[in-house]
Every structure is written in C-alpha cells, then in structure tokens.
Amino acid sequence: MEWHEGHTWTLNIQLPIGEVNFKVVMQEPQGSVRWEEGSDRQISIPDTTPVSGAPVGQASVTCNFNDVHNSRVEVRPDRNFMRQQLKAVEGRVMAIQEKKRKLDKKMAALAAGFKKYDETVALLEGGVQEAVEARQQQKEAAYQQQQREQQAQQQQQQHPVQQQQPVGTGGGYNPPPPANSS
User: Which of 18, 67, 104, 119 has the most CB within a 10 Å radius?
Assistant: First the structure.
C-alpha cells in the first residue's frame, strides 16, 4: 500500500464482481503485524456503475482501521469501454452532422424554390390585378354607354322631334299663311 497525505493508504488490486470479505492488516515499522479487530469487512463490487451503467473498471474502498462496519465503495467506469462508447458516439455525431448538411442543402434548394414560387405568384397576382382592373374599366365604360343611351331614349320620348318634309313635295305640309299686310 502507498501512504498519501491525510493518512490515506491506497492499494491497486483486482477484485471480483460481487461480495468481497476482507480485513486490513498493518505492518508496524519494527516488523510486527496488527490485524483489525472484529469481524471481516464486507463490501459489494457492482458489475456496472450506478450513473452511466458502464462496466466497472476501478473500485475505490475507503475505510478506517478497526472500524469494520463503515467501508465506502466508489466505482469508476472501465476506461476501454468508455473509449469505445465515445468512439461510437462520435461516429453517430458525425453521421448526424452529415445528415444535417444534406438536409441544409435540401432546405436551401427548397427555399430557393419557394422564392421563385413567391416571385411567380407575385407576377401572376399583378397580372390578375391588371386584368381585373381592365375588366372593371370595360364594365364601367359599358355601363356609362348604357346610361347615355338610356338618357337619349328618355329625351326622345319626352321631346319627340317632328320630321319636316321639304316644301312642294306634297307630303301634306301646309306652310303657315303669309302675314296680312293690310
């Protein structure tokens, strides 16, 4: 074991997944050995980490000498597994980015198509508006012409014009008698 500041000791060993029983043994500087008092420590090494669900790569056990009932286990994911997962995620991200680039290209083409469509619709609407205005002017002109004709008919009915026959044609025209000079 290695000593670290704060009177922390570490030891790297392979532990099996599942229940592990152990005792801490301390060797004194003069060479004698001291075993922990009490029953064996019992810890559980899970097969996956609680947060990521990744396989356990390392387990860290924290305990105090002779406090066999309080042992804390912290697990870290397996680094090789995490590297593989990272590569898989990077591959998916790259695939998504490629799909996004293709979709962006299609969206740009659609936007250009919509712009042309909008321009065409605007032109057609302008042409339709001009046609509607021209047709309205035609209707107005026809209505005004109809009004003039009706007014002319009404005037003829109210003030009929007598047709005069030329003198001496025998058309029954009697000129007014000459004025008397006496």
Answer: 67
Residue type, 7: H
Given a contact cutoff of 8 angstroms between Cβ atoms, the answer to whether 50 and 77 are in contact is: no
Check: CB of residue 18 under 8 Å from CB of residue 44: yes
State the Rg of the chain over Cα.
Answer: 56
Using DSSP, state whether 159 is helix, strand or coil: coil
| Chain center to CA of 62 | 49
Average pLDDT over residues 7-33: 86
Share of the chain above pLDDT 70, in %: 87
Q: How far is CA 156 from CA 152, 162, 164, in A?
A: 6, 11, 16
The whole-model pTM stands at 0.45
